[in-house]
């Protein structure tokens, strides 16, 4: 065993005759780390104590449980040292400090590009000078941010750019490109989406939007309140925002059916010269409740089963079709309720049963399965 230990770690030596104290260095990736191992009199490795230099402690942070398990199961000291070196190999590879540091030219190039673009455009830069966030304002005064992740060989390699947009952010890049080119292309893309955002801004300002709860600039859908337990989901086209969007009416059949008939019969009246909101009013022959005339709380009706409005970001979208009831439910809640009733039956993905409130017939689709489960 002594020969194997000397062969694997020649700088790790016993300090006493009993060979219960070892002190020295173990070498991993041409780096030496100070270590001391204290063995009990019977030399059982599982009862050994390990003392490390501060560099080794930092490196093993997050791997302590693995080291302890290796210590407990190693048959001898040589095996433990070999396994410890394996853990260190993995830790060294995963450390961010081991990434190559860009040459000085990288930093001087970055400073030059920021001076050309303007430091007032910089919102954030990380401590490694790899990730930047640049702000931009479109012609309507909307504020936007683009995140730029630079490659080590910048500007020879194209950066990775992301932003809160409903379309992909595709950038053209050459070895002569700079952050100014990124910012200019970003502004051009923002202007191409100005009409799309104007449509959604009007909906957000003049109606009660149920979903998404906090719309982002990347969202293309709005679920708009029409009345109690009745709403319309519209999907606005980014390229042709004023054209007729995809529409889906949600609510009890006795309320939704007349609205659906009006939508189908008046579709020819859609005028691309008018706003989407005005067209929806004309085609459906309704006035949408607005912040100026109604409180949103009057439309946020709780689920009749779990007694909450939001359930894992979902809102009640299943409604009893009986006009005297009209109680809303979460799809998941109603499904679980009906599935627990002996009289309920299922045909393919539809469950048939009775409303928990009025006992009238009610149906629900099986909720989509969570891929993580």
TrEMBL record:
<dbReference type="GO" id="GO:0036297">
    <property type="term" value="P:interstrand cross-link repair"/>
</dbReference>
<dbReference type="GO" id="GO:0043240">
    <property type="term" value="C:Fanconi anaemia nuclear complex"/>
</dbReference>
<keyword id="KW-0234">DNA repair</keyword>
<feature type="domain" description="RING-type">
    <location>
        <begin position="303"/>
        <end position="359"/>
    </location>
</feature>
<dbReference type="InterPro" id="IPR013083">
    <property type="entry name" value="Znf_RING/FYVE/PHD"/>
</dbReference>
<keyword id="KW-0227">DNA damage</keyword>
<dbReference type="InterPro" id="IPR001841">
    <property type="entry name" value="Znf_RING"/>
</dbReference>
<dbReference type="InterPro" id="IPR026848">
    <property type="entry name" value="Fancl"/>
</dbReference>
<dbReference type="Pfam" id="PF09765">
    <property type="entry name" value="FANCL_d1"/>
</dbReference>
<keyword id="KW-0832">Ubl conjugation</keyword>
<keyword id="KW-0833">Ubl conjugation pathway</keyword>
<dbReference type="InterPro" id="IPR044037">
    <property type="entry name" value="FANCL_d3"/>
</dbReference>
<dbReference type="InterPro" id="IPR026850">
    <property type="entry name" value="FANCL_C"/>
</dbReference>
<dbReference type="GO" id="GO:0008270">
    <property type="term" value="F:zinc ion binding"/>
</dbReference>
<keyword id="KW-0863">Zinc-finger</keyword>
<dbReference type="Pfam" id="PF11793">
    <property type="entry name" value="FANCL_C"/>
</dbReference>
<dbReference type="GO" id="GO:0061630">
    <property type="term" value="F:ubiquitin protein ligase activity"/>
</dbReference>
<dbReference type="Pfam" id="PF18890">
    <property type="entry name" value="FANCL_d2"/>
</dbReference>
<dbReference type="InterPro" id="IPR019162">
    <property type="entry name" value="FancL_WD-rpt_cont_dom"/>
</dbReference>
<dbReference type="GO" id="GO:0005737">
    <property type="term" value="C:cytoplasm"/>
</dbReference>
<comment type="pathway">
    <text>Protein modification; protein ubiquitination.</text>
</comment>
<keyword id="KW-0479">Metal-binding</keyword>
<keyword id="KW-0862">Zinc</keyword>
<dbReference type="GO" id="GO:0006513">
    <property type="term" value="P:protein monoubiquitination"/>
</dbReference>
<protein>
    <recommendedName>
        <fullName>E3 ubiquitin-protein ligase FANCL</fullName>
        <ecNumber>2.3.2.27</ecNumber>
    </recommendedName>
</protein>
<dbReference type="InterPro" id="IPR016135">
    <property type="entry name" value="UBQ-conjugating_enzyme/RWD"/>
</dbReference>
<keyword id="KW-0963">Cytoplasm</keyword>
<dbReference type="InterPro" id="IPR043898">
    <property type="entry name" value="FANCL_d2"/>
</dbReference>
<dbReference type="Pfam" id="PF18891">
    <property type="entry name" value="FANCL_d3"/>
</dbReference>
<keyword id="KW-0539">Nucleus</keyword>
<dbReference type="InterPro" id="IPR043003">
    <property type="entry name" value="FANCL_d3_sf"/>
</dbReference>
<keyword id="KW-0808">Transferase</keyword>
